[in-house]
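Researcher: I'd like a structural prediction for the single chain below. Treat it as a standalone chain; there are no partners to consider.
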Amino acid sequence: MQMDKATYKKYAEKSAKKSNVLLNVTKAFIIGGLICCLGEAFMALYKNLGASLENARLLESVTLIFLAALVTGFGFFDDIAKHAGAGTIVPITGFANSVVAPAIDSKSEGFIMGVGAKMFIIAGPVIVYGTIASIIYGIVYYFIK
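Model: Treating it as a single chain, here is the predicted structure.
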């Protein structure tokens, strides 16, 4: 039996689990905010240890990327993301997860054809288009200034 689009849409809306948008937004805000607060705490720690502001910011980013990759490797990131949603995607931790998760999933295919080939399957387009956009922006800025 074939369904037309309208019938399928009604079926899908009836069958879909209703989400509590207010609760989801609140959890994303709180958990994302906690991740950002953790980053600020690392930056303050690095500044107190004598790093310049620029180096403290760099070390903060590297630390958050490392922790997100570690948590992804241990399989906890997905559990956090189930509750936090966009709260884990928006900070730099989401980028680290998008690089590490496909690599871990493909490790059985070997380091070259598995990990190496699949590592940037999700993050790759973001890197490419981000780089292209920054080049275009730089050229436009150069001629305007």
